[in-house]
C-alpha cells in the first residue's frame, strides 16, 4: 500500500520556479533519501509533504500522522526533556514519552533541561518527540548535518534501528551520499525541479562502505551531483 503519492508537483516563489514536475510514490515503511545541492528545493518538498506549504500544481497524498525532524533539535528551553517530547499531547502520553526516551538511549533524562544536553543528546530528544507521535511518514531534513562525525554515525545507526522497528515511510534529506546509500531503500537526486535519478539500493544491512556495490552506487550519485570519483 502506498504511504505517499505525489504527481506533477510544482512550486514557485515569485518568479522563481523551485519544483517543476516532481513525482514520487512511497510504499509504507519505505526509506527514501533525497540528495541535491543546496537551494534545489529539498526543504520545500519536505514542507509540502508535511502539509506546511501548498503546491502550485499537482497532487500530494500523504498520511495525516507525519512529523519532521530538522537539522536543529528545536527544543523549548523552558521545558524539561519529557515535556518537550510530549509537547502538545495529553497527559496520558507521559508513559509513551518515557518509553520513547528509553528507545533513543535517554533513559533517565526526562527531568533534564535542554540546555544541559550535548548536540547529539538534543537531537535524540527530537527523535523521541517524533517517535512518540507514531508517524506513518517521518520527514528528516538534514537531521545529522550539525553533528560531529562520530555522533553522526551513531545517530544513523539509531535512526536505522528505530525505522526498522516502527516502519514509518521515511524521507531523509541529506548532503551526504554515504549516509543516503547506507540507510535508504531508495535514493534520488533533486535537480532543476525534478527527481533526476531514482534508484533502489538492494544491499543487505548493515551495509559496508568498502563493498564494491556500495561504491558503485556512491559513484553514480556523486556523478549526478557533479562530483566524479
Ligand atoms: N518561503 C519562501 N519564500 C521565497 N523563497 C523561498 C521560500 N522558501 C524557499 N525559497 C527559495 O526556494 C529555493 C529552494 O529552497 P529550499 O527548498 O530551502 O532548498 P534546499 O532545502 O534544497 O536547500 C531557494 O532559492 C530558496 O531561497
Ligand atoms: Mg534545506
Automatic annotation (TrEMBL):
Gene3D superfamilies annotated for this entry?
P-loop containing nucleotide triphosphate hydrolases
**Does the record's keyword annotation contain Magnesium?**
no
Q: Which PROSITE patterns match?
A: ABC_TRANSPORTER_1, ABC_TRANSPORTER_2
Domain of life the protein comes from: Bacteria
Q: Write one Gene Ontology MF term.
A: ATP binding
Q: What Pfam families does the annotation carry? A: ABC_tran (PF00005)
The record's keywords, sorted A to Z, are: ATP-binding, Cell membrane, Membrane, Nucleotide-binding, Translocase, Transport
The record's section on InterPro entries has: AAA+_ATPase, ABC_transporter-like_ATP-bd, ABC_transporter-like_CS, ABC_transporter_ATP-bind, P-loop_NTPase
Q: Which residues form the ABC transporter domain?
A: 4-217
PANTHER family under this entry? ALIPHATIC SULFONATES IMPORT ATP-BINDING PROTEIN SSUB, TAURINE IMPORT ATP-BINDING PROTEIN-RELATED
Report what the protein is called: ABC transporter ATP-binding protein
Q: Which organism is this protein's natural source?
A: Nonomuraea mangrovi
Give the source lineage, highest ranks first.
Bacteria, Bacillati, Actinomycetota, Actinomycetes, Streptosporangiales
